[in-house]
Design brief:
Number of domains: 1
Strand order of the largest sheet: 6-7-8-9-4-3-10
Shape: globular
Number of helices: 1
Number of strands: 10
Distance between the termini: 28 Å
CATH class: Mainly Beta
Strand content: 35-45%
Helix content: under 10%
Length: 133
């Protein structure tokens, strides 16, 4: 079984994922750009049961970015940790940026390329989708 470890910027939150990182993609939507202050967010899908907080559970706060979509972040440093969904409680959207270990996976596609940052050029040959296809 795969075991991944990660932490927020200040180190107040530490976590482990004891399972597979699936459906890895680069999301170019405006919400992901703003949340991560970057051209896009590389994220995976994980089973909620595989997410384990090792330290700092009380530091995690949530923001409902869309109805039923809750972004979890460290209340000290603001690092984005995961997204939970009311409609899919068994899975989380997980941004790879806070991993301390090699995820062993790479993005398989780009989504929401119709709203990508105008100053960013996609230079790889991965499939591109206008929505979350």
């Amino acid at each position: 079984m795969m075991k991944h470890k990660g932490s927020c910027l200040c180190g107040g939150v530490q976590y482990e994922i004891q399972g597979e990182l699936r459906d890895v993609l680069n999301c170019h939507c405006s919400m992901c750009r703003k949340l991560h202050a970057a051209a896009f967010r590389t994220r995976a899908t994980i089973n909620a049961a595989d997410w384990k907080i090792m330290k700092g559970d009380r530091l995690i706060k949530f923001y409902e970015s869309s109805p039923g979509e809750h972004k979890g972040f460290c209340s000290n440093c603001g690092s984005s940790l995961y997204t939970r969904f009311d409609s899919k409680p068994g899975i989380y959207g997980f941004p790879l940026g806070t991993l301390d270990t090699d995820p062993g996976v790479k993005a398989e596609r780009h989504v929401f390329v119709g709203s990508k940052a105008p100053w960013h050029e996609i230079t790889d040959d991965l499939p591109r989708h206008l929505t979350f296809d």
